[in-house]
């Protein structure tokens, strides 16, 4: 029952060939349909995980969240309408375009288009990455995570938490509100930053192998201005990652080793350690805010704040499981 994973993301852009090169060359996704108006990309056995459309409108074209049961669509449709949202049933043509059996469409309080879908279509042929990688960590964890800028965070929090049933993982309140949510074992599949802006802050894809991230980092550094955050490690989800500037201005986090949580026992809590244990130097920021964030991680390091050495180590768990 309920929402179980981030299924797909859609972006509006007129920089189609830049997105093609970025998504397949750096992110290692598999480019599928190439038309003048749309590009679609695979990350696994799903027929589609990312699409880019050349049409007028906000950069965020759609966030697609997967539900467990077909009846969840009616359940959430009723809840959303009771909460004042306008809900539409996806047409057959739209469901075909999204490669899903059925979906509903609505907007969140900031006007972001959200789609809930049931039963995504699988491809019959194997996933072929755009550069040699060990694949993406998806499956029951979903496509990765999406982090949105937020204006009406006081309305967005109850919308995602109470109406859609997302669970708060943790949150920080300074220098601006930042809420992280889980819908499965991935520490967060969704987050929002109360920055007063709209649209994507970033989305994250998680690679199976740290070398996939490192080799992408080498490629990104060869492109002038491509790296937005240097390699670093986050304090809440333990993700080792770098952030790249996408062709649409927002970032894409290239991650490895994210933390799994037990949703049954997890307690939401406030965090104070700052975003990163080390690294993640924000090359795009002016010196002042950059220095403030740098000081936060130097403080974290000076206090010995770090991820547990063995617990939550996906490499070790993988070895043990193997
Ligand atoms: Fe992230």
Structural account:
The protein has 322 residues and is an alpha+beta fold. It has a single domain, classed as Roll (2,3-Dihydroxybiphenyl 1,2-Dioxygenase, domain 1), CATH 3.10.180.10. Helices cover 24% and strands 33% of the residues. The chain contains seven helices and 18 strands. A ten-stranded mixed β-sheet has the order 17-10-11-12-9-13-16-15-14-18, sandwiched between helices. The protein has an eight-stranded mixed β-sheet with strand order 2-3-4-1-5-8-7-6. A hairpin with a 5-residue loop joins strand 15 and strand 16. The two termini are 31 Å apart. The mean pLDDT is 95. Bound molecules: fe (ii) ion (FE2).
Brief synopsis:
Helix content is 24%, strand content 33%. The protein has 322 residues and is of the alpha+beta class.
Structural key phrases:
single chain, 322 residues, alpha+beta, eight-stranded mixed beta sheet, binds fe (ii) ion
Query: What number is the mean pLDDT?
Result: 95
Helix content: 10-25%
Examine the coordinates and then state which fold CATH places here, giving the name of the CATH topology. 2,3-Dihydroxybiphenyl 1,2-Dioxygenase, domain 1
Order of helices and strands: EHEEEEHEHEEEHEEEEHEEEEEHH
Distance between the termini: 31 Å
Please report the total strand number as a whole number: 18
- Distinct helical segment count: 7
Strand content range: 25-35%
User: What class would the helix/strand composition place it in?
Assistant: alpha+beta
CATH architecture call: Roll
Overall geometry: globular
The distinct bound ligands, ions and cofactors come out as: fe (ii) ion
The top-level CATH class is Alpha Beta
């Amino acid at each position: 029952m309920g929402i179980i994973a981030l299924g797909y993301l859609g972006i509006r852009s007129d920089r189609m060939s830049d997105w093609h090169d970025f998504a397949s060359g750096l992110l290692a996704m598999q480019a599928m349909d190439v038309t003048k108006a749309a590009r679609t990309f695979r990350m696994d056995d799903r027929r589609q995980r990312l699409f880019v459309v050349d049409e007028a409108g906000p950069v965020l074209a759609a966030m697609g969240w997967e539900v467990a049961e077909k009846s969840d669509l009616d359940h959430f449709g009723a809840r959303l309408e009771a909460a004042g949202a306008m809900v539409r049933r996806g047409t057959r043509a739209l469901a075909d375009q999204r490669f899903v059996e059925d979906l509903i469409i609505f907007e969140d309080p900031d006007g972001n288009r959200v789609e809930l879908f049931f039963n995504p279509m699988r491809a019959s042929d194997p996933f072929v990455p755009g550069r040699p990688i060990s694949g993406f960590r998806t499956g029951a964890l979903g496509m990765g995570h999406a982090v949105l800028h937020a204006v009406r965070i006081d309305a967005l929090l109850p919308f995602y938490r109470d109406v859609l049933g997302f669970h708060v993982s943790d949150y920080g309140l300074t220098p601006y509100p930042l809420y992280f949510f889980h819908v499965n074992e991935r520490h967060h599949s969704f987050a929002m930053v109360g920055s007063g802006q709209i649209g994507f802050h970033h989305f994250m894809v998680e690679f199976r192998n740290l070398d996939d991230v490192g080799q992408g980092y080498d490629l990104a550094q060869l492109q002038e201005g491509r790296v937005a955050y240097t390699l670093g490690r986050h304090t809440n989800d333990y993700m080792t990652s770098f952030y790249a500037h996408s062709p649409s201005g927002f970032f894409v986090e290239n991650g490895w080793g994210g933390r799994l949580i037990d949703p049954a026992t997890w307690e939401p809590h406030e965090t104070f350690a700052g975003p990163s244990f080390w690294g993640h130097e924000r090359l795009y920021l002016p010196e002042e805010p950059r220095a403030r964030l740098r000081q936060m991680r130097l403080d974290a390091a000076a206090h010995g704040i770090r991820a547990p050495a063995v617990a939550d180590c996906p490499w070790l768990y993988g070895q043990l499981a193997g």
